[in-house]
Write a structure and sequence with these properties.
16 helices; Aspartate Aminotransferase, domain 2; three-stranded antiparallel sheet; alpha/beta; 2 domains; five-stranded mixed sheet; about 450 residues; binds pyridoxal-5'-phosphate; Aspartate Aminotransferase, domain 1
């Protein structure tokens, strides 16, 4: 008999107490933070779903690796363990460690970008886009149209639109240094890319002689979705599916804060010797010697062990189910969410839940603030606050007004998630009473991090 209950495949070895607060305390904390959840002290947060990046729990073996860490400047055994762990999944000759994912992006783009260049992706993550644009190049997104419709069910909403990619290369191939595919598609809701789609991208890259790079931050979650959803993949080992993705790519950038199961780290890996030499020289300028990058030996150990654990089927079954469990609970409570639920987060549709709050009064902000006051839950507005400001300072509604509940890995239990569902349902029941916000102070760019808000009068 196969039990129906999918359990956390670990028991708890060390605990971090949560600090309970009263609603009055949370109101005061939010006011002091200018109604911006980024400005809260994390001690005033009960369930922190701001991001899944670097916020997960490490295993006892990872902590053992931290003790084993060898801090030799060059050629440390920790480096060789790290390199072997990366190459077991991504057999690429050059592995270049960095302090996190964006450092790998910066080095790669400094080597291949520049004015007049264009980089296609299914959807650029914001740091990837910023690092492309910082070189004067252009970042362009070709996710399939289904990936832009929040209510539409599709197994691989992260897929690249192959026709648009090919049409673009037909026109502009000379300006394209490489093609990126983000697995899973973070900015598109953590949606997976199929193996078949990546094969299609590879064939197009071959026709135009272009290297294919993976933004592979959530490679294991993506491979699990492939195993569950793609015809013919059901009996396969996830590590083999990951190696199939790797075999189709010429290189990758990676944030170990996601599927490295670590709190810091990243890398750039690639096949081309000349490009690798250029990248290593850039690495030495800003990150460090090529056998540690921006990392301590102990971090390399924690990542090496994390890469062993992240492809365990029991872990991935639990991981994807725990995100789905939150999505199912919210759906049962009648709360509109982006479908299907992705790998690392659930997105509440704030515009649908608060139809009386117009986009320029920030329904996502209103919902996120209410979840904090009601239950100490910290989420992240992904909507008009984040994307609504034009470079000239004017405003327009973002495509969607969402609130992201990102799930840190191996950190919260099922009762924590039940609590989140209860608080969301309680807030949704009085959604019509929630008021919008106005911004009283904002920086010229990336305003969501530091803007200050004021609730609008009833
Ligand atoms: C987090 C992330 C990055 C950047 O990695 P950092 O470690 O935060 O610098 C790049 N791409 C995707 C898809 C990500 O999720």
């Amino acid at each position: 008999m196969i039990p129906k209950t999918i359990i956390e495949p670990f028991r708890i070895h060390s605990v971090e107490p949560l600090r309970m607060t009263t609603e009055a305390e949370r109101r005061a904390a939010l006011e002091a933070a200018g109604h911006n959840l980024f400005a809260l002290r994390s001690q005033d947060v009960l369930i922190d779903l701001l991001t899944d990046s670097g916020t997960g729990a490490m295993s006892s073996e990872q902590w053992a690796g931290i003790q084993r860490g060898d801090e030799a400047y060059a050629g440390s055994p920790s480096w060789f363990r790290f390199e072997a762990a990366v190459q077991r999944l991504f057999p690429m000759p050059h592995v270049i460690p960095t302090h996190q994912g964006r450092a790998a992006e910066k080095i790669l783009m400094a080597a291949v970008g520049g004015p007049g260049k264009v980089v296609p992706n299914n959807t650029h993550f914001d740091t990837t886009r910023a690092n492309v644009e910082a070189t004067g190049a252009e970042a362009i997104d070709f996710v399939i149209p289904e990936g832009l419709d929040p209510a539409l069910e599709h197994p691989f909403k992260g897929n690249m639109d192959l026709e648009r990619l090919e049409a673009f290369l037909r026109e502009r191939a000379d300006d394209v240094p490489l093609v990126f595919v983000t697995i899973t598609n973070n900015s598109g809701g953590g949606q997976p890319v199929s193996l078949e789609n990546l094969r299609g991208v590879r064939a197009i890259c071959d026709r135009y002689g272009k290297p294919l790079f993976l933004d592979a931050c959530r490679f294991a979650e993506n491979a699990w979705f492939v195993r569950e959803r793609e015809p013919g993949q059901q009996d396969r080992d996830v590590a083999d599916i990951v190696r199939d993705f790797a075999a189709l790519a010429d290189g990758m950038t990676m944030s170990a804060k996601k599927d490295g199961l670590a709190n810091i780290g990243g890398w750039l890996a690639l096949r081309d010797d000349a490009l690798a030499a250029t990248c290593r020289n850039l690495l030495i300028l800003t990150e460090g010697f090529p056998t540690y990058g921006g990392l301590a030996g102990r971090d390399l150990e924690a990542i090496a062990q994390g890469l062993e654990e992240v492809v365990h089927h029991d872990y991935l079954r639990y991981r994807i189910r725990s995100t789905g469990y939150l999505g199912d609970g919210l759906t049962r409570a009648g709360i509109p969410i982006v479908r299907p639920v992705g790998g690392h987060a659930v997105y509440l549709d704030a515009r649908a839940l608060l139809p009386h709050v117009p986009p320029l009064e920030y329904p996502g902000q209103a919902l996120a603030a209410a979840l904090y006051v009601a239950g100490g839950i910290r989420s992240c507005e992904i909507g008009t606050v984040m994307f609504g400001r034009r470079p000239d300072g004017s405003e327009r509604p973002a495509a969607l007004d969402l609130v992201r509940l990102a799930i840190p890995r191996r950190t919260y239990t099922q009762s924590h998630v039940d609590y989140v569902v209860e608080i969301c349902a309680e807030v949704a029941a009085r959604a019509s009473e929630l008021r919008g916000y106005r911004i009283v102070d904002e920086p010229p760019a990336l305003r969501h991090f530091t803007a200050r808000f004021e609730p609008l009068p009833a």
